[in-house]
Amino acid sequence: MDRKINSDTALSMQQVASDLRFDTFESGRLTINKHTYTESVLIHQNTVVSTFNLTALELSNTHIQDWIKRYSPEFILIGTGSSNKILPLNAVDANGLPVAVECMSTTACMRTFVALQCEDRNFLCFLSVL
Fold first, then answer.
1. Of 18, 27, 12, whose CA–CA distance to 127 is shortest?
2. Model confidence over 23-55: pLDDT tens digits?
3. Do residues 107 and 25 lie in contact, with contact meaning Cβ atoms separated by under 8 Å?
4. Domain map (residue ranges) of the chain
5. Which of 18, 34, 62, 75 makes a 20 to 30 Å CA pair with 92?
6. Is 21 exposed, middle or buried (0-12, 13-18, 19+ CB in 10 A)?
7. Strand locations in the chain, DSSP E?
8. What is the mean pLDDT of residues 65-85?
9. What CATH homologous superfamily does 40-127 map to?
């Protein structure tokens, strides 16, 4: 039986070209595109934009607000290392509207990042190596 899809209701996903590939993660080391990082990384628009000598637990609202001013993300993903940790971070944009900050283990954060690559959304991803 042939099924016809109404083009008005068909779901489509946009393919986004990405040069960013996660190779491996182990405590203290993250490899992206065959480059090994021993410090935490901040990713925006499929590019590692910065490295940090701090863990997710050391992030402050000041870091988050600085990133929001610079990148204007819709939301921020935070990889907290080998285990999930809840961080007491609050974020608002220039209009005072909340910006979601989602915390999860670094491996879960990497998987979430990959799943979101096909969406045309502006977000940040901080990956802690510890």
1. 27
2. 999 999 999 999 999 999 999 989 999 999 999
3. yes
4. 40-127
5. 18
6. exposed
7. 22-26, 29-32, 35-37, 40-44, 47-52, 75-79, 100-104, 123-127
8. 95
9. MTH938-like (3.40.1230.10)
